[in-house]
């Protein structure tokens, strides 16, 4: 089966020549920001701040900054070869049981785990709605939200995903930044010394599991990295570059659109890094002083105290609207992304002809229904969003090993000579890969320790 997207000279477009003009072509990274600034920040990051204080601020910052070069590498490979993630993995050499690369099987296991993490987001959003309509059972809102997401996404249009996801995320980012500023005029204000104390690079054992989960789930995580090429394809970066005919013109266009893609990734990194640090600071100040971290259906209500303590009781409604917005945007953006990732797997397996646009969109539509409905069923069964999201964070950390492994092949085996990056970039990529490996290994050790203690 043909693996490259259908690009031809008719789609070719000259890349913008300046940073300012490049901003018109941003989009894929903004969708990721809508997915990233969500459950990890609202739940895992604030809880980590509450438990560890300022001590682990460096973990959060590292989690946001260190993985962006891997994201860029996936975007570059997509532009060069016109292939989404699983098709790119399958094009690599190595063990291929039933003609499918071994790494894709691990990807499938990870996608199954994703249902649990996104169930936590869906349940958290439903909790926020129940605050406004307390007489309605949360199970009903789970059903309504799941069906609503499917109805919005099943047509598979990129433009609507970009517009809605960005708009949903904007409200909460502005609110959380305002809250961090406002906290300075309350008893919970923090000093510059408190902030600096978060960069002692210690990893306390009693916060290990939460730190590892936060590293995996904050910043651009394994799922977002693997999904990023799909948005780059649908935005048009690969099509605008055109097929690789070996000409200097193609190399120039590829470098130009890779530059635009890099700006897109960096802008989204700035957005989610600022928002994530803001969430952590509120957890380390306001939530830490409360000393309680419920894990059931009271979680969102407990987290709302961050806002009511800072802005007064009247801010409860504002917080619930914002909490719903950020959690709904997360499950919304991830439903859109994982519907494409599952479709890519079906294409590699030969179950769906992804070269046929009608077949591809039909598969995306089906998964747009399946994904939120399964998440809803899981949440109704467990009703513990914190545990579900922490589980997803650890799964992210472990899956990052495979994602990083493939990034090595993308950079040193699949990158055309004329598109090789600078030594500074390679240094940053190696640092990213080493950090991912270390944190993933520590995550595995902690998971085994918890398993042994439980037994």
Shape: globular
The N- to C-terminal Cα distance equals 47 Å
Sequence stretches where pLDDT stays below 50 over 5 or more residues: 1-6
Largest sheet: none
> What would the average pLDDT be, to the nearest integer?
83
Structural class: mainly alpha
Helix fraction? over 70%
* Tally of separate helices: 20
Beta strand % = under 5%
Query: How many whole angstroms does the radius of gyration measure?
Result: 21 Å
Instruction: Give the topology string: H per helix, E per strand.
Output: HHHHHHHHHHHHHHHHHHHH
Beta strands, count: 0
Structure write-up:
With 455 residues, the chain is mostly helical. The protein has 20 helices and no strands. It has helices spanning 19-22, 28-36, 39-52, 57-65, 68-81, 85-90, 102-132, 138-153, 158-182, 192-196, 208-217, 222-235, 237-241, 248-290, 299-303, 305-311, 316-349, 357-382, 385-414, 423-454. α5 (68-81) packs across α19, α7 (102-132) packs antiparallel against α17 and α8 (138-153) packs across α17 (316-349). The protein starts with 18 loop residues before the first helix and ends with a helix.
């Amino acid at each position: 089966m043909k693996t490259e997207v259908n690009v031809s000279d008719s789609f070719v477009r000259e890349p913008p020549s300046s940073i300012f003009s490049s901003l018109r072509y941003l989009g894929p990274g903004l969708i990721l920001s809508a997915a990233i600034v969500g459950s990890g920040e609202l739940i895992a990051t604030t809880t980590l701040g509450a438990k560890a204080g300022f001590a682990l601020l460096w973990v959060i910052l590292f989690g946001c900054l260190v993985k962006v070069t891997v994201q860029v590498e996936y975007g570059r490979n997509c532009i060069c070869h016109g292939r989404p993630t699983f098709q790119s993995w399958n094009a690599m050499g190595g063990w291929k049981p039933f003609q499918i690369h071994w790494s894709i099987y691990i990807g499938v296991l990870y996608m199954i785990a994703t249902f649990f993490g996104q169930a936590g987001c869906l349940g958290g959003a439903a909790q926020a709605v129940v605050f406004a309509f307390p007489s309605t059972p949360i199970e009903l809102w789970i059903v309504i939200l799941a069906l609503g997401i499917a109805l919005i996404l099943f047509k598979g249009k990129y433009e609507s995903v970009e517009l809605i996801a960005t708009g949903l995320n904007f409200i909460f980012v502005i609110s959380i930044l305002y809250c961090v500023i406002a906290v300075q005029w309350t008893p919970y204000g923090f000093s510059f010394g408190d902030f600096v104390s978060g960069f002692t690079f210690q990893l306390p054992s009693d916060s290990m599991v939460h730190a590892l989960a936060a590293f995996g789930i904050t910043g651009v995580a394994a799922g977002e990295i693997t999904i990023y090429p799909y948005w780059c394809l649908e935005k048009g970066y690969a099509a605008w570059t055109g097929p690789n005919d070996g000409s200097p013109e193609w190399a120039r266009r590829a470098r130009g659109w890779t530059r635009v893609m890099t700006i897109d990734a960096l802008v989204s990194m700035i957005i989610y890094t600022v928002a994530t640090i803001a969430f952590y600071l509120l957890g380390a100040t306001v939530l830490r002083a409360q000393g309680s971290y419920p894990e059931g259906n009271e979680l969102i209500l407990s987290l709302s105290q961050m806002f009511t303590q800072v802005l007064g009781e009247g801010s409860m409604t504002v917080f619930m609207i914002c909490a719903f917005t950020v959690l709904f945007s997360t499950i919304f953006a991830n439903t859109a992304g994982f519907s494409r990732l599952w479709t890519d797997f079906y294409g590699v397996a030969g179950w769906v002809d992804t070269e046929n646009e009608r077949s591809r969109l039909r598969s995306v539509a089906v998964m747009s229904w399946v994904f939120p409905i399964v998440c809803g069923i899981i949440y109704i069964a467990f009703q513990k969003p914190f545990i579900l999201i922490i589980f997803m964070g650890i799964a992210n950390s472990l899956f990052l090993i495979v994602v990083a492994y493939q990034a090595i092949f993308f950079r040193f085996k699949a990158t055309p000579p004329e598109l090789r990056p600078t030594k500074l970039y390679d240094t940053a990529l190696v640092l990213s890969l080493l950090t991912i490996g270390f944190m993933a290994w520590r995550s595995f050790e902690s998971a085994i320790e918890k398993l042994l203690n439980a037994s």
